[in-house]
Specification:
2,3-Dihydroxybiphenyl 1,2-Dioxygenase, domain 1; 4 helices; 21% helix; 4-stranded mixed β-sheet; alpha/beta
Length: 153
């Protein structure tokens, strides 16, 4: 594309997109995934009037579950019981998404690692320390990689 063509078809201005509103994941076992994201990772599951009106019927049918982080990011789980990854080994990534990362306060990082270990969550690698902070990478019940990370203390 030439410079002239780019000027004729400008993109959105920087700052137009404010934040990620939600992430939607397909899950094979809704019960296991609700337990993982709600009980193990401690995300708040939307219930009753908290559920968006457009999703209420799907939530009642058990086809969707909605969770929210304290900063307002919504995680939607969509039940796909016939879903099977192309490979049984979760290290063989099969989507364009690499992982989902949650931020945690540095003073709670070790507690999070302990919770993962106590629940026998499959750890891919970590904890690792980098100049940008610490992280641990693990798998949800469907083999999707999740990270808990904190800034350097």
């Amino acid at each position: 594309m030439t410079v002239q063509e780019k000027k004729q078809r400008p993109g959105l201005s920087i700052g137009t997109l404010k934040r990620v509103h939600h992430i939607a994941l397909n899950v094979k076992n809704m019960t296991a995934s609700r337990h993982f994201y709600g009980e193990i990772l401690g995300l708040h599951e939307l219930t009753g009037d908290e559920v968006p009106s457009t999703l209420k019927d799907l939530v009642v049918q058990g086809k969707v579950a909605n969770f929210i982080t304290p900063d307002g990011l919504v995680l939607d789980l969509f039940s796909e019981p016939d879903l099977s990854p192309p490979h049984d080994d979760p290290k063989q990534q099969f989507t364009r998404a690499n992982h989902l990362a949650f931020h945690i306060d540095a003073d709670l990082f070790e507690q999070a690692v302990e919770v993962l270990n106590n629940h026998h969550v499959i750890i891919d690698h970590g904890p690792v320390s980098r100049p940008t902070g610490r992280g641990i990478y693990f798998y949800d019940p469907d083999g999707f990689m999740v990270e808990i990370r904190c800034d350097p203390s």
